Amino acid sequence: MTLKNEVGFLEVICGCMFSGKTEELLRVLKRSFISKQKILVFKHASDIRYSTQEICSHNGQKISAHLVESTSEIFKYDLSEIDVIGIDEVQFFNESVIEDIEKLLAKKIRVVAAGLDLDYRKKPFGYMPHLLAMANKITKLTAICAQCSNDAFYSQRLNNINQLVLVGATDSYEPRCALHHYVPEDKIK
Fold first, then answer.
1. Which of 5, 19, 160, 184 is the most buried (most CB within 10 A)?
2. Catalytic residue among 6, 89, 102, 185
3. Residue 80 domain flag
4. Number of domains, the chain
5. CB burial string 96-129: b at 16+ within 10 A, e below
6. 187 lies in a domain?
């Protein structure tokens, strides 16, 4: 029998596209599962690239998850026995994510959230800066630049779609280093 967490704990996993954020989230959740902790996993409803019932890494790893439009929907689930909550694509959630995660922490739940820290314009993405400031632990990952194989910190948008949120994979983005990433002037808002 696993004892309930004594305090809430927020871990944030961040980085650019293809840096392994979801893979790291899955690794952390698997360790929690192995240690017999009860987990619940959520992802933003806009991310249905690979599945509507799982979070999936680009390399095919997966775990069952619930699609939610808002983190407030997490409270519709019975959390009384839950030790760990995983949230993927956390950058897509609205400002209630801050208050909702604070409520989960007050319930002594460990929250592991993964998402992009920067958008395709190299600007802080959504409420990630606030979550990073709140975090007890931060894991910042890098990818490999698609142009030169150096460390990539940025997500290069490969099309001319000018909306901030564009869910995609290799069809829409590639990882780039500082030397090879660019933002066309007409895309900066």
1. 19
2. 89
3. yes
4. 1
5. ebbebbebbbebebbbbbbbbbbbbbbeebbbbe
6. no
